[in-house]
């Protein structure tokens, strides 16, 4: 049975998902750890689906103009063979999604349970935080969207597969990869957000199918509440992050990751 304790737990889990999904600090790590830290029962499959649907709807709505142009030109390219910049970007998003899809499909359930260990989360939070620090510190930021090539998309997609390790951060690792390839911070963040759409939608669809086929009770009022909260918070977070990125850079998130990782190690390593 999928269990949601109450609106209080649902609110904070949805708030946490909305805040962390698109920041380079790992939403999955926070969602796994919050029930552990506060002694809550697991929120269940239904709620995980709900908050991811919420963040997906937020990023699609925020980039609705880009999504429309990419979809339109991609569909046109299938028949006309004329590839515009938007069509090329759509193809790159598709290509970059393949590695994480293949790894996700091939990952056994036992490995998934092992990777959800707080110690693994702590280590990934620190290690990939250090990699983000290196990428941000050495970034040349000489490339813009017109320099994005297929090999770049494949490399960023390969890095994205590492996000299956909780604590890595999907947005963090894809931004890291883009910076290492020499892209500007703004493009790195925007391409990361565009990549999040299929990366969230595909596992979300699989979980939805699993939910529909399950015999457990589903509290739809809590589900709807979670979707709304995570969507609103995620939309505001995307806007804030893109506005502040040039001002504050990525180092505050690196510092947060180090503090969080060390705290988790202290709490769970003993």
Percent of residues in helices: over 70%
Distance between the termini: 32 Å
Classification by helices and strands: mainly alpha
| Contiguous uncertain segments of 5+ residues | none
H-E order: HHHHHHHHHHHH
Assembly classification: single chain
Main β-sheet description: none
Find the count of extended strands (DSSP E, 2+ residues). 0
Radius of gyration: 18 Å
Shape: globular
Description:
This protein is mainly alpha-helical. The protein has one domain (7-268). It contains twelve helices and no strands. It has helices at 7-20, 27-38, 45-62, 64-80, 85-106, 109-115, 118-138, 150-160, 170-180, 185-213, 220-248, 251-268.
Tags for this model:
mainly alpha; 12 helices; 270 residues
Show the helix and strand layout:
Elements: H1 7-20, H2 27-38, H3 45-62, H4 64-80, H5 85-106, H6 109-115, H7 118-138, H8 150-160, H9 170-180, H10 185-213, H11 220-248, H12 251-268
Task: Briefly summarize what is shown.
Helix content is 77%, strand content 0%. With 270 residues, it is mostly helical. The protein has one domain.
